[in-house]
Write a structure and sequence with these properties.
Blueprint: H1 2-8, H2 52-55, H3 62-66, H4 77-87, E1 104-107, H5 121-124, E2 129-131, E3 138-140, H6 149-157, E4 163-166, H7 168-189
Antiparallel strand pairs: 1-4, 2-3
């Protein structure tokens, strides 16, 4: 029984999943090497000091925000983690330590049924929700209404459970990630 389960897993020498051609790196050494250097942290060409404005540039790529060279084809998980930790050393993760009570509304448009929903949040609380023009799913248009009875009914009746109470900082991050994902999918399918 155990050998059948063990044989179903690929060995370490197999190619990476999803069509990747790189083999997995060898396991890290248990000794800490002094030759490991921290990645150079710079966003858009800046150094470590005075770059807060450059990090918040909406045109910055994730590699630029982490201070990594975008032309390099492959970064190991350890390199990405080290760059991320170096970047957020003084910042707080809004998902681990929320800054306030979650009263804003976020709709995961990837799960939302949209106009065909039998328990439409848009019909229940039209002052908070509306249908998006581009893909026809529900979207929160007003925030800070977490204690409104109609909003609570809309959230409770959602059949796909795609409506969430979040903090303002969490909402900003989630909306940005969702917008980037939807725009990339839309540009893939609807190339002019």
């Amino acid at each position: 029984m155990m050998s059948a389960v063990a044989s179903s897993f690929p060995s370490r020498g197999h190619a990476a999943p999803f069509g990747g051609s790189r083999a997995l790196p060898p396991p890290p050494s248990t000794r800490r090497s002094t030759s490991l250097r921290r990645p150079r942290v710079s966003a858009l060409g800046g150094g470590l000091e005075g770059e807060a404005g450059k990090i918040l540039d909406p045109r910055a790529t994730p590699f630029q925000i982490l201070g990594l060279d975008a032309t390099t084809a492959f970064y190991s998980a350890a390199q990405l983690k080290a760059a991320f930790r170096a970047r957020v050393v003084n910042n707080v993760d809004p998902f681990d330590e929320p800054e306030c009570e979650a009263r804003d509304i976020f709709v995961n448009e990837l799960l939302c049924i949209g106009t065909g929903c039998p328990y439409s949040c848009v019909k229940r609380a039209p002052h908070v929700f509306s249908f998006s023009d581009d893909i026809g799913t529900a979207r929160a248009i007003s925030h800070g209404n977490g204690e409104d009875d109609l909003v609570q009914l809309a959230v409770g009746q959602c059949p796909r459970k795609c409506i969430y109470y979040v903090t303002p900082c969490q909402r900003t991050i989630l909306e940005d990630v969702l917008a980037r994902y939807i725009s990339s999918v839309m540009s893939y399918f609807f190339v002019s």
